[in-house]
Amino acid sequence: MTIIEKTQELGQMIIESEEYVARQKAKISQTADEGAMNLIMEYNQKRTGFMQKLQNPETKPEEVEEIREQMDKEYGILTANESISGYIEAMQNFNNLMNQVNGIIAYYVNGQQNDECGGSCSSCSGCH
User: Fold this and answer.
1) Distance (Å, rounded) from C-alpha 10 to C-alpha 22?
2) 90 and 50, same structural domain?
3) 98 and 75 assigned to the same domain
4) What is the largest CA-CA distance in the chain?
5) pLDDT at 5
6) Which of 1, 11, 105, 120 is deepest in the core (most CB within 10 A)?
7) pTM of whole model > 0.70?
């Protein structure tokens, strides 16, 4: 079997994984939730406005802090939505899986173990 064939096999295994399936279901659920989609749209508009203010060189440090607090508040509103928080969690779980896969591949290619291992595999990029 060639590397390409093994890679295709790995890709198939990934899309059949629990993490991928959960991410896809959460994405569909979030997209079908009109309230969630409106929250995302509002958040993105507010974030754009905040970013424009932050890029203004005349923005004072206290204004920057106020903008950060407003952004945190808006993010809290966003993540209070069940569809959105479910998608975020599913996405994080899938990203953890992909980081582990990529870390394992990097280990075999580079022959280096991750020296920053904290012992928890949930956030691991793959040490062995």
Assistant:
1) 18
2) no
3) no
4) 61
5) 96
6) 105
7) yes
The two structure tokens encoding residue 29: 């659920």
| Same domain (yes/no): 123, 99 | yes
Tokens linked to 34: 């009109």
Alpha-carbon span 122 to 97, nearest angstrom: 9
Q: Which domain holds residue 29?
A: 1-33+84-128
Contact 124, 93 (CB under 8 A): no
* Residue 76 and residue 57 share a domain: yes
Mean per-residue pLDDT, 4-31: 97
Same domain, 7 and 27: yes
H/E element holding 44? helix 34-55
- Distance between CA atoms of residues 69 and 58, nearest Å: 19
Spatial CB neighbours of 26, under 8 Å, sequence gap ≥ 6: 83, 86, 87, 89, 90, 91
